[in-house]
Amino acid sequence: ISCKVVVTLFMYFLATNYYWILVEGLYLHSLIFMTFFSDKKYLWGFTLIGWGVPAVFVTIWATVRATLADTECWNLSAGNLKWIYQVPILVAVVINFLLFL
To answer: Which positions, given as ranges, span the membrane (predicted)?
Structure first.
C-alpha cells in the first residue's frame, strides 16, 4: 500500500506543478490584458486551480486504478489509464501556450 500512496502523491505533486504554472500564466495574462483586476478577488480561484483541479483528476485516476488495475505497485504507464492524468496536464500546457500567442 505504501508504494501506491507514494505513486499517487508523486502524480498529484507532478500535476500541481503544471497547474501552478498555468496559474502564473493566468495571473500574468490578467496583469497584461485586464485593466481592472483585483488580486484578492481571484486569489481563491487561483488556489483552487493550482491545488484543487489536480486533486480531482488524480483522485479519479487512483480510484480507477484501484478498481480496474490494482497490481503490486502502480507504475505510471499502465495502459490507457495514464490518459486520465495526462489529458488534464496537456490541457493546462495548451491553455498556458494559447494565453500568450
So the answer is: 42-63, 83-100
**Domain residue extents for the chain:** 2-99
pLDDT band at 11 (very low <50, low <70, confident <90, very high): very high
CATH numeric code, 2-99: 1.20.1070.10
In three-state form (DSSP H/G/I as H, E/B as E, the rest C), the secondary structure along the chain is CHHHHHHHHHHHHHHHHHHHHHHHHHHHHHHHHCCCCCHHHHHHHHHHHHHHHHHHHHHHHHHHHHHHCCCCCCCCCCHHHHHHHHHHHHHHHHHHHHHCC
Task: State residue 79's pLDDT score.
Answer: 75
